[in-house]
Amino acid sequence: MLMFCGALTFAQERTVSGTVSDNFGNPLPGVSVQVKGTNVGTTTGDAGIFTLSVPRGSTTLVLSAVGHLNQEFPIPASGNILARLESNPASLEAVVISAQGLRTSVKAQGVAQTQLSAEQLTNSRPVNVASALSGKVAGLQVSAVSSGVNPSYRLVLRGMRSLRGNNNALVVLDNVIVPSSILGNLNPADIENLTVLNGGNAAALYGSEGSNGALIITTKKGSFDGKLNVLVYQTITVEVVANMN
């Protein structure tokens, strides 16, 4: 009976192999290959080659990879597939502002980073940019040094790396290095996007001052669509004096 069950299982499956490449013919490793309508799947190796046992009656494979469109390929009778994935145009358009105002892709920059949009900064209606960053960037410690009308904040991004030196993250506003105290006076609604360079490689972009990480802030610019857009919201902070002595 065990031999009969093994032969029946073998008869219900067949082996499919293939090679996956990009638009330029380069092999794509780590591509997810799944039989449509089932949980059967595998991934391609370093040479873009995969081998998969598919159930009898399956006719389509679904291929997906980061930076590429999800595509479906029919399984030929020969069981050998040569698949070519198309690049995803949306992922190619993702750019960040680097040193000297240069625009580059996230992959080309080669540093650990976190990017926040204007909506992410203003969805909780914060008073200033420093308070808007609290809880939104992994590893970023925001501490209030002074309070009042013009509060000052201390930003520690890569931990306490020095006992006596400066551990504050570098702040770059529209490609100009500014003191971190400006975050207490900057309106979050005026920011278009904010990129946080978490890795130490930020020092290669901004010198030794960027060794503690950097916050790159880009403010909004005027539009050329000929329309007047006005956004109004108000945030009120109330403080009560604790001691009059």
Describe the structure.
The protein is elongated. It contains 6 helices and 16 strands. The termini are far apart. Strand 11 and strand 12 form a beta hairpin. The longest helix is centred in the first third of the chain and has 10 residues. Strands 10-15-16-13-14 form a 5-stranded mixed beta sheet. The chain is α+β, with helices and mostly antiparallel strands and 245 residues long. It folds into 2 domains: 86 residues, Carboxypeptidase-like, regulatory domain (Immunoglobulin-like); 126 residues, Ferric Hydroxamate Uptake Protein, Chain A, domain 1 (Beta Complex). About 3% of the residues have low confidence.
Distance between the termini: 93 Å
Task: Give me the Rg, rounded.
Answer: 27 Å
Percent of residues in β-strands = 25-35%
Low-confidence runs:
4-11
Sheet/helix structural class: alpha+beta
Q: What is the CATH topology classification name of the largest domain?
A: Ferric Hydroxamate Uptake Protein, Chain A, domain 1
Overall average pLDDT: 76
Helix content bin: 10-25%
For the biggest β-sheet, the strand order reads 10-15-16-13-14
Q: Spell out the helices and strands N to C.
A: HEEEEEEEHEEHEHHEEEEEHE
Per CATH, which architecture of the largest domain?
Beta Complex
